[in-house]
Amino acid sequence: QVQLVESGGGLVQAGGSLRLSCAASGRTFSIYAMGWFRQAPGKEREFVAAISRNGRTTYYADSVKGRFTISRDNAKNTVYLQMNSLKPEDTAVYYCAAGSVTNIWYSPRGLNEYDYWGQGTQVTVSS
After folding, report:
1. What is the predicted pLDDT for the residue at 63?
2. Is residue 27 predicted with pLDDT exceeding 80?
3. If exposure means fewest CB atoms within 10 Å of the residue's CB, which of 1, 36, 49, 106 is most exposed?
4. Which helix (H) or strand (E) holds 78?
5. What confidence category does residue 53 fall into, taking pLDDT thresholds of 50, 70 and 90?
6. Average pLDDT score over the chain
7. Dmax over Cα atoms in the chain, in whole Å?
8. How far apart are CA 8 and CA 103, in angstroms?
9. Exposed, middle or buried by CB within 10 Å (0-12, 13-18, 19+), for 119?
């Protein structure tokens, strides 16, 4: 079992930045690939970014590529999502997730590849 707690959400103007954090507790953090997903009102949860167990491989949705950066600190059991040049369409509840994978280089992109989820943090971007 692993518990995930997101923080860092809030209200920001378009063009601004936020950094989300996700702190993990429980089992050894480094055995999990980590991902960020988001869900806007009335829409399905969608993939945002993922990072491999060793932090060497990342993958981004096309909609955030070049604006968002995912990173992890295995010593602190924390994964981050740096969000720059935010747009109103980035408004959503953001969730971090942990997936138990054997390949240390793999960054999963599917919802069903993740085993544990945080409670979410709201990000609102005003125009």
Report:
1. 97
2. no
3. 1
4. strand 78-83
5. very high
6. 96
7. 42
8. 29
9. exposed
User: Above 90 in pLDDT, residue 26?
Assistant: no
**Dist. CA 2–CA 120, nearest whole Å:** 15
Q: What are 17-21's contacts with CB under 8 Å, separation 24+?
A: 17/82, 17/83, 17/84, 17/85, 17/86, 18/83, 18/86, 18/123, 19/80, 19/81, 19/82, 19/83, 20/80, 20/81, 20/83, 20/94, 20/96, 20/121, 20/123, 21/78, 21/79, 21/80
Instruction: Give CA 59 to chain center in angstroms.
Output: 11
Residues 6+ apart with CB under 8 A from 105: 52, 53, 54, 56, 57
In whole angstroms, what is the distance from residue 38 CA to residue 41 CA?
A: 10
